[in-house]
Design goal:
The complex is a heterodimer. Chain A is an alpha/beta fold. Chain A has six helices and six strands; from the N terminus they run βαβαβαβαβαβα. The longest helix of chain A is centred in the last third of the chain and has 13 residues. Helix content of chain B is 54%, strand content 13%. The mean pLDDT of chain B is 88. The chains are: A alpha/beta, B alpha/beta. At the A-B interface, helix 1 and helix 5 of A face helix 1 and helix 5 of B.
Chain lengths: 142, 216
Amino acid sequence: MPRVLVVDDHAVIRRGVQGILSTYPEWDLCGEADNGQDAIRLAGELTPEVVIMDVSMPGMNGLEATRIIHDVLPETKVLLLTLHSSSEFVRSAFRAGARGYVLKSDAENELVRALNVVIGEGTYVSPAVDPRGVKESIFNNN
Amino acid sequence: MRILVADDHDIIRRGLKELLTSRSGWEVCAEAKTGREAVMLAEQLRPDVVVMDISMPDLNGLEAARKIRKSLPKTEILILTLHFSDQLVREIVEAGVRAYIMKSDADRDLVAAVEALANHRPFFTARAADMLLDGFVRPHAAPPDPDAVIRNRLTSREREIVQLLAEGKSSKEVAVSLGISVKTAETHRANIMRKLELHSVSELVRYAVRNQIIEA
């Protein structure tokens, strides 16, 4: 049963992810963090299959935490959850080692689909993002 | 108790719903993605409390709050914002909203705020409460915010149109959205630009972002 760690500085978002996952018993929300440092520490302690990470957090931001988790725990997949839909952001996300990119505005519909794709070794990009700008960075990192 | 939740981000609506339904007897009777949907659903379902994000496309939370207060004076409203703004607090209070919290503090403040509203008591996040008290105690200390003075001269219809224009709609699209003639929409647009002393759409967008009518 795949385990998930959720990282976001806003509790209301963490609650939202918890709510969505509660209706999918095959996913186990094993922990939560509200900053990048704790995310890295908990990821090391709990070794979840997937980390759902917010990009903009005070202190260490989500991209930096993603880079570190990707280096230290290469088996752990990081799925970014964010407000930003620009291809530039998405490119940075994949360069940092993320496997998925989901927009907060459509997370209810997409989150579980994205989790299933990344756990199956695939990469997931929210359909709201123009894929053309992003393809090369995904392929270069796989 | 029946609560309507309005926010354009579905994950936030879900998070708010999780926080609210942790109280037994509290039910989220509907969810809205825009201010317009919120007004429509509120009028249909008459919830006890409306929990509303201030920035939503099409019609923002503040305008929606004004409309709801007009047609449903018994319905209490709570507004949530991402960023704190002194000016916004004044406007929120003037719109008849008696509870204001920041999204970042929702886990701590949401239930307490809705509880207060259920008892017809106000609830303001600490920083807002301080600010309001300051304004009450020394009403002449702060110079009037020029944006607010101008904004007060806009009609409610004009305020609605500011948001639609800032979102990139043409006069024709504004007309269709609001069910008015293109000529009327263009007249409103000209009046808005004149009253706000703006000379281009990008100035209008900057004005709208500055006043949290749209998100940056």
